[in-house]
Every structure is written in C-alpha cells, then in structure tokens.
Q: What sequence folds into this?
C-alpha cells in the first residue's frame, strides 16, 4: 500500500505519527475481534447441551485465542516502540510531540504516570486465553460438566 493510498494525499510523507495512529487502530481492532471471539465462545459454552460439544467448543476457542495472542502482542510491542521513538525524538529536538506533552501534563496533574496500553495488548488477552485453556482442560478432565436441567 502506498502513502497516497493510506493518507489520500499524494504529497504527504508517511510519518512516525501516522505509523503510531495506524498501529493503535490495528491493535484496537485486533483486541476487539479477540474479545468478540472470547465472548462468543463463552456464551456458546453456557448454552451447549452435550459434554462433547462443550469440550470441542472450548478446545476450538482456546486454539483460536492462542492464535490471536501473538498478533496482539506483536502489535503492542510495535506500538510501544513507536511511542518510545516519538518520545526520544521529542526529547532530542526539544519540540514536544503530543504524546510526550499529554504524558507530561498527566504527571503534573497527579494522574497515573504509567502506561495502561499493555492491558489491551498483553494482560487481558493472556488472562482470557488462560481462562479458556483452563475451561478446556477441566471440561476434558470431567471437572467442568454440563448440568442436567430438572424436568
């Protein structure tokens, strides 16, 4: 894809700020899709009527989530590196980039001085994947079973 196709402006250059915006959108889209798959599998697991279907559903869900996890992690690492580069360039040039300026203002106002970006790109997906793996394992071991409804 060319710069013109991505920005719609033939005269523009693809900047690191453009790359940051692209990576943030990509990470958020991947995270939303990951959470959608997780929610669909969990919702389906609650509705399933047979033990074998539960085992297979949780197995497929766990495999899918394990496949999505590295793509989320990679996008997160790339975004972190891009923001680090932007902050470094801002410090070297003396001009405040909006990312650096917002971080500086948040710290001065007494708000959090740590990044919560890693929750989206690493912690939440890892916990969801581990939960799915635990559900799959307990379903196959017979610990997690379909409850028989009273008739």
A:
């Amino acid at each position: 894809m060319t710069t013109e196709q991505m920005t719609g402006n033939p005269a523009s250059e693809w900047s690191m700020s453009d790359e940051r915006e692209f990576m943030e959108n990509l990470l958020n889209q991947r995270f939303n899709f990951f959470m959608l798959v997780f929610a669909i599998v969990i919702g389906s697991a609650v509705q399933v009527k047979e033990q074998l279907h539960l085992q297979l559903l949780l197995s497929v869900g766990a495999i899918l989530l394990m496949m999505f996890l590295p793509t989320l992690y990679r996008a997160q690492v790339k975004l972190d590196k891009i923001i680090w580069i932007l902050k470094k360039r801002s410090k070297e040039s003396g001009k405040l980039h909006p990312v650096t300026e917002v971080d500086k203002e948040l710290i001065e106002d007494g708000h959090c001085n740590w990044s919560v970006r890693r929750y989206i790109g690493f912690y939440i997906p890892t916990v969801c994947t581990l939960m799915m793996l635990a559900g799959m394992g307990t379903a196959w071991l017979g610990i997690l079973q379909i409850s028989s409804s009273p008739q």
Observations:
- Helices lie at 3-7, 16-47, 51-93, 98-108, 117-141.
- The two ends are 60 Å apart (CA to CA).
- The chain has one domain: 16-141.
